Fold:
Amino acid sequence: MEIRKVQLTKGKSIIYKLEKKLHFEPFFRYLESFTESGISSDDMIPLFALERIKEIESVSGKLCKHNLSAYKDILQLIYSLSVSLIDTDPKRYWALATPLAEETFYGTDAFFDLWKNRLEEQDIPGQMQDGKTLSNQEKLIYALILERLYGLPAKENNTIVYHHLNEKGEIIDYYDLTIDFKFVDIKQKKELPQFDLRNLSKNTNDASLFNWDHVINAIKLEDFELSGFTILTVKKSSLEHTINRIQSILLDLATYNYHLFLSDVEKIITPILKSTDTIFSLFPLFQLNGLPFFDYSITNKSILISEAHASNSYTNINPQVANYLKHPHLIFYNTLDAIKNTTSIFDERIKASGVKTYLCIPLIHNHALSGIMEVYSHRLDQLDNETIQSLRALVPLLSQLSYDITAEFKKRIDEIIINRFTTIQPAVQWKFNHIAAQYIQELENDEQNAHIKPVIFEEVYPLYGAIDVKDSTVIRNASILKDFGFKVKQLALLIDELSRDGKHQLIIDFSKRVDQITLSLDQISFDESMVKIIEFFRKDVQPFIEAARREFSTKHAIIEHYAKHFFTNRETGEFYRNEFETSLWKINQIISKELNHFNSFIQGNYPSYFQKFRTDGIEYDIYIGESITPQQTFSKEFINIFRRQQIISMARIALKAHHAKQDLPIPLETTQLIFINPHSIDISFREDERRFDVEGSLNIRYEIIKKRIDKIRVKRTKERLTQVNKIAIVYLSDEVLEDLNLSIQAIYDMGIIESTIEHLKLEDVQGIVGLKAIRLTVNLNYRDFS
Structure:
């Protein structure tokens, strides 16, 4: 035990406005409470302490920071009274501190030795409106005032968590510092401020959202005085905090890359291991098509399942590993005082790896193997009983974790298959399952005409939309020709460099060929130009460069300098076209993201079929109807809701594309087109194209109209219907107008479109007469969208 000052708070804060005195008054009252009812044998120690304190006070004065050594016997007595007299644990972390525990003045050697380490205080959650945070001591004093003077039970548990950090700043241990305010008095200097305790919660439905701003504004710390001393105790709490951290990040599993997640888990486990020489390995047991699937990027630390030992191929699992996965069991090697599992068939592998201490625990969830945990070290005595017991306490949580990761992995595989490799979406999966089950039944019953029936959905309502990048073909062609023009300029510069020493026949002949190809491009179509350009660089430029390297050996560096522009041109040979493609990709990313939001809205209200087609923009079809979602009652009101959301989605796309234009290498603009079909149609799945298409001749008209309205013009004008920053809605029948006008009015009230609404008649196209359109103008000043 020793007298020593250790600063516990992070730095100066508002607690320094609070008057604090170190003395024994609260402790006096505690001792006197034992003697008030008469002297007994149980009262001898408190009585002795009182008399001894009075003796010291008469000689050295009342307790303060400057006369602590005079009171050392009393401080030792306080320690003896606060802990068991027969507990002689030399590593007990115990200390006495100032009234708000901002600094110690007496404690055990173990406490002060612990504080020599790199300990970092963990903040208690809670933040004020201005973004500032309160220190732990600040929160504790406010909680003490509320408890002692207002009778409000403290939310805080008077515990501060400390991280023990290594040289790399990694957490290797946790310690809980508990502060006992039993011997602290708190008094107000002024009349106690009154405020509504109901305002202490930011959310009436969630009492955990404590309103610190309200407390701080009402209670001024300078109006209070603390006196006495606090008792501090510390306990190592690595296991509890490890469990809490794993549980907290487990909630966010779906947002993690599982490699990063497992890496984080390894770091979290570190505090319960004996040293940094101990290696922790955890891997979930993935299965594909009924076979174990090992991701060797996460089993690279495993002794049991290493790439060298686990398998020779995906389907050929090492027999020893396969047998262990079927019959998993605990494996330990030189653990628990060098006990060795002599029956393990992996002993030789462990020994050959250089590992001296090894523990393998199979993780079981719902009676099935979900993963494997291994802990090992290349040194002996690294897996003691305390470490093993802590690891065993984590097994249920790690088993759940492994199962959740494998479930999430399977879910992601299913999503990829559904979204990338097949059009069988969740909304229609049930139908395919039903058809497949019927076919299997027919086969099982030996029916001669067993066959897979067509997948047909009758009376579904289609929603069609198209977002096109305006003049994309023209811009792409112009970019390609600009790339060619750039290369021709480089050729001209090379010819000039090679001509400095006089004209050479090779240069004269090639110059004529360059002039010929340049002139000819002005007289032919773009497609013909592309053929000529490709041939020119393959048949003319390449042989010229090779000949120039031979003829002008002294100018090799110059030739190579220009040659890179002809065949790699800033790494791709298509600089301007790459600018266009990059811009197009970014625009399509904006479109896809908004369409995903739109699709989520639809699926969340009435599961439907949604398919997209990529062009220099994106087209999409949506089919909605009771035949697709028979388990949910269908109403035509869904159609109106979805059409309204479709217009909003188009407006959002136009807005975001407009705002993104300035950040694109080539500013691209979009046009938005919707076609409203008034009646339901039938669709069927086409196995040859693996997509849905209209069923029956009566419904073909819907597909014909879709294909012929993308470049349609306003009647008796040359004006294209689709325009930048506008939404064109094409329809045939006036029966849709009433509901459509209601939707448009609601969208206008949102402010996302302008008041100008154009009603247009459209030119007749092949086989289609009487098309009409409404054209809306997007409000480019609209800002209220994410």
Residues 257-445 form a domain with the Beta-Lactamase fold (CATH 3.30.450.40).
